[in-house]
Each structure stands twice: as structure tokens, then as C-alpha cells.
Amino acid sequence: MSTTPLLFLPGLLCDEHLWHHQLRYFGSRYACQVASLTQDDNVAAMARRALQSAPERFALIALSMGGYVAFEMLRQAPERISHLVLLSTSAGSDSPRRRQDRLAGISMLQQGRFAGVTSRLLPQLVHPSRVAESVATDVQLMAQRVGGEAYLRQQQAILDRPDSMQTLASIQVPTLIAVGDHDVLTPPAESHAMQRAIPQAALHIFERCGHLPPLEMPDQVNQLLEQWLLAGLPAGQ
């Protein structure tokens, strides 16, 4: 079994709790660490901070905004990353509509209104069948813990991030891409595009799952990561 440390990167308005099922499952066998992505307002600085506190070499597991940081870490220090998992993310730039939504969120916060994750936003983050479940409460509590100031920094970093599509062909580590079939923020088509661009990447689709598989389907995520780590190669093809 590999003993490569695992470094987890959370998404927008997420903290360590996003990965608490994975930390519990893998923590007795692997050195696990969750990077903080709340302190910087650009992706390059987020990546540098994560690298400064990370082990010398590690497997990188990233979700959504964490994926944008993962691509930057690959540009800054590709030799330190042994394996890559990209969950619910995209390598391209925002669509005009997504950019407009982000700017609207920033504008609301600048007017003094940070609502966190509202009940109206929950269906964009989790599968409709889970909107009334405890996972929805977890998502809302994470957002409140991260808070408005960090949200502003994160959204600015996302808006200013580089397009990473040109980075994909240079990725030389075993790569697993996974996404929920009901992910409306980073739809499966974007994961298919990454799989085509990354040499020998594997793709897994979670059924009846939204944008947050580590919370929505923790057992399936754990099993998928277990296969990938044991084999030393992507799982799920």
C-alpha cells in the first residue's frame, strides 16, 4: 500500500469539514492534511501557501475551487505531486453567466449582506433529494464558518484565475476525474473535456449526486479513492 501523504483542497465557502468522511476513513493509514484556501485573493498565492505547508511529495485531492488551485500547484511545483484527483471542477474560464453571478455575490457582500448558502442556493450544490437532509445543514454551517471576508477573497481569486485548459496536456501523474451526474455548477461535460485533455486520465460519474460528492456520497468517494491509491493508478474507468 502506498504511504504517500494526502493533501485535500476544499471548494468555495468550504472548510476542513468538506473532507471529514475521508479524513476519518484514511487518517489511520495515511498522513492527511487539508489546505487553507481562505487567506488569499488570488490562485497563485493560494497555491504557494498550500505548497509551503504541504509534505515534500503528496497525492492531491481537490474539489471545485480547489481544482483551480491544483492546476496552479501543478504549474508551480509539478515534481511534488504524485497523484491527482479532480472532483467537481473545471479547467476552463467562467461562462459569462457564471461571471455575472460571482460579481453579483461580491456586490451583495460589499453592501453588507453576506447570506452564506441560502435555501435557494442549496439545489445548486447538492442533489435535490438531499436538500432537506443533514448534508444541507453541513454546507450552510461551513459557509458561515468561512465567512464573508474570506468569501470575497475566494471569489476574487476565482474571477482572476487563468484558464488552465492548456495546462492539462502537460499533466504526467495518474489522474482521476469525478463528478456528480446532477452537478449544475461544473456539469459532467466539463469533466469529459478534462479527461480528453489529460493523458490517460480516468473519469467516474456519481449517480444522483450534485456538486459535493465527499459529503453527499462519502462511502462511494472513499471506495473510489481507495481503489485509486491501492492501484497507484486512476480508478473508475
From TrEMBL:
Entry-linked Pfam families: Abhydrolase_1
Domain of life (superkingdom): Bacteria
Record flagged with keyword Hydrolase: yes
Molecular functions (GO terms): hydrolase activity
InterPro entries (UniProt xref): AB_hydrolase_1 (IPR000073), AB_hydrolase_fold (IPR029058), AB_hydrolase_sf (IPR050266)
Keyword entries, A-Z: Hydrolase
Keyword Transmembrane on entry: no
Residue span, AB hydrolase-1 domain: 41-216
PANTHER family for this protein: AB HYDROLASE-1 DOMAIN-CONTAINING PROTEIN, MONOACYLGLYCEROL LIPASE
UniProt protein name: Alpha/beta hydrolase
Organism of this sequence: Proteobacteria bacterium 228
